[in-house]
Amino acid sequence: MQLFKTFFVTILCLAILAGCSTSEGIKVSNVDEFNAAVKQAQPGDVIVLAAGVWNNAELKFTAHGTAEQPVKLTVEKKGAVTLEGQSRINLSGEYLIVEGLVFKNGYSPTSEVISFKKKKGVYANNSRVTECVIDNYNGPERFETNTWIAIYGKNNRVDHCYLVDKRNIGVTMTVRMVDELCRENNHRIDHNYFGYRQNLGANGGETLRLGTSHYSLSTCGTTVENNYFEYCDGEHEIISNKSCGNKFLNNTFMECRGTLTYRHGNDNVAEGNVFLGNGKEHTGGIRIINKRNKAINNYFADLTGYRFRGALVIMNGVPNSAINRYHQVDGGVFTNNTFVNCDHVQLCAGSDDERSAIPINSLIENNVFLHEGRDDIFTIYDDISGIEFKNNFVANNIITNKLAVTKVNLAAVKNENGIYQIKGDGLNGAGSSVTKAPANADNTGVNWYSKELRNRDFGTGKQIVVKPGLNTLQEAYSQSASGDVLVLSEAGDYAMEKKFEISHPISIVSAEGIDKPRLLSSKQEMFTIQNGGSLQLKGVEINGEMSPDLTGNCIVSTSHYSMNCNYKLFVEDCDVKNLDVNKFFDFLRSYKSTHADTVMIKDCAFDNLTGHVLRLDNETDDRGIFNAEYVILENSTFKNVEGTVLDLYRGGTDESTFGPTLKVNACQLVNVGNGKRNKENGSMMIHGVQVCHINNTSFEESKPLNLYLTNGEPITKITDCDFNKSSIVFNNKEFEVENVTIDGVKKNLRQL
Ligand code: CA
What we know:
Blueprint: H1 2-16, E1 20-22, E2 25-28, H2 31-40, E3 46-49, E4 52-55, E5 58-64, E6 71-75, E7 81-85, E8 88-94, E9 96-99, E10 102-106, E11 112-115, E12 117-119, E13 122-125, E14 128-130, E15 133-135, E16 147-151, E17 157-159, E18 162-164, E19 173-175, E20 188-190, E21 193-194, E22 208-210, E23 223-225, E24 228-230, E25 237-242, E26 247-249, E27 252-254, E28 258-264, E29 269-271, E30 274-276, E31 283-288, E32 294-296, E33 299-301, E34 312-315, E35 333-335, E36 338-340, E37 345-349, E38 362-365, E39 368-370, E40 378-380, E41 387-390, E42 393-395, E43 406-408, E44 410-414, E45 420-424, E46 463-466, E47 469-470, H3 472-478, E48 484-488, E49 493-496, E50 501-502, E51 505-510, E52 518-521, E53 525-529, E54 534-538, E55 541-543, E56 554-558, E57 567-572, E58 575-579, E59 586-589, E60 596-602, E61 605-609, E62 614-616, E63 628-634, E64 637-641, E65 646-649, E66 661-665, E67 668-672, E68 684-687, E69 691-695, E70 698-700, E71 705-708, E72 715-719, E73 722-724, E74 728-730, E75 736-738, E76 740-742, E77 745-747
Parallel strand pairs: 2-3, 3-6, 4-7, 5-8, 6-9, 7-10, 8-11, 8-13, 9-14, 10-15, 11-16, 14-17, 15-18, 16-19, 17-20, 18-21, 19-22, 20-23, 21-24, 22-25, 23-26, 24-27, 25-28, 26-29, 27-30, 28-31, 29-32, 30-33, 31-34, 32-35, 33-36, 34-37, 35-38, 36-39, 37-40, 38-41, 39-42, 42-43, 46-48, 47-49, ...
Antiparallel strand pairs: 1-2, 12-13, 44-45, 76-77
């Protein structure tokens, strides 16, 4: 047999000429050689991709191995074979192994990079994808859907992969259940490292999804275990479970925004998982919907998320729900979980006129809740009589209202693995037995690929000194790298007569102790933030007097095209003036399919603009997409602005996003919004913002603060504000107002 095989391989080698068999396998150097090797492949064959860059390689790996002798595709040297451009791979057949592929510097033009499917109805079974890397393999269009790994068929395994920096809409990894050949699939997804995924600012940023609502009452039967999820911030479903009979075992969620969500489907179990929030905003645990879903022996620590991102969220359902809405929680079981310093446990979450079906036949038993900094962790939105509480313990300080739980003295002490161990009398075996995070950066993914983050933050690079003059700033920028600081060493004019396009994070900062240097430009846009760019301006004067007399100038623009990388704009200690050489001179103008992580204006003085200060209102399709996650206005004055200080728009009723969040503190608006070209009835137009806090701010002789609060349960607080010849317009929903003065009349109103 062995003799035959050697003979066969020799013939094969001759037959395909270029491909060459070695003791390690059949080495191939291009797609034609690969195809020839695949065509001849027999059980036990190993096909080896030669080291180097494989550009635009569409690998169709169709073969039939056996359990004892699979057909394997591997690489000459791990890390030395990269698939770039428009490369992808499709597996079909039986008993295949794919190992060591790295996808980077490109994207798949079809929707799946690694697919266990050749075509509809033709899948791979009993196959394995192991030690593969997909790194920032994203198309330029932010909202063109793309999936990195799609698992079809049955009995497949994806393990030890490293998936990092997904930026486009679309799940990172998914189990598809499109027909019978893909259900009751017994797949295993284990020991993968799901790395950083930026906030998408829209629905469709899930890291892992099992099934879809359409087939959600069918059994999927996939096991997801020992995976490490790190900074997976795409949207509020880190994992979206949309099928029945899945297991989530011993996974670690490190500072991920969102929850493991039992969105659709029944009879799923989560056991031994560890959720570590470290106090990061919007970090959550498990969200429960549907029948007989379980959470057993999980550990939750330092999670801050509220509402649908709570540490434990048990939802209300919709009576006779459509398959894509919310089925009632029935038979839920939540036992032996430990919650330490988690801010929110939400019962009957989402209760409203539509979601009126309360949880029934459910059990919460042997859990422990402790919070060292907060008393008020339980929120009960509706009738909890369908949930039985047995043998649950809470720390003495926790407010329990009508919950049938036992108050005891509890203390949390971190062990050598950083896991809180709970000390207390009479706990009786309640709580989680977890003593360490089961999965981490070292025991998941691959050990031969760099995990260093590429895009550096402001001020983390070197300093470059810049002198006044013409285009000196652009020249300095052209020498800079990510995170560098351009230090303007002298007062004077820094004039720009060329386009200034920013493609990496850069700071432009005045030296200490000098008068504010002046930035001027003869271009319509002083700065254009391109994909990958971010801008910090500090201690400078920004003056519009050299700008051209053209309609539609601005100081900062985003790319006019889609940006798949979020950006930041920080403006600190700056004077912005004379943006009035023409009509509609804005400060920041954003475009569709762009998203700011943060736009911050701090300690600044704006005077004399014919346009708007911040235009973040270009996602008008009402699909829950918006232009900025955080907008922060702090200790700044805005005078004689013909347009608005802020246009921030999020439309639609989707509930998948965290933001936008707006914080305004200690600002002064004088004569804002009164220009005849300002068609908005407002000095600030705030639409669909999820968290809005405006504090200690005055509006004088300005158009109203205009709030239109749409979906979800937006938090809106207007405190210590003064309106003089100005007002507030509330369009709907509830909000809080405290210590607000309108034309000299003090108003303390709640729920107007
Ligand atoms: Ca979603």
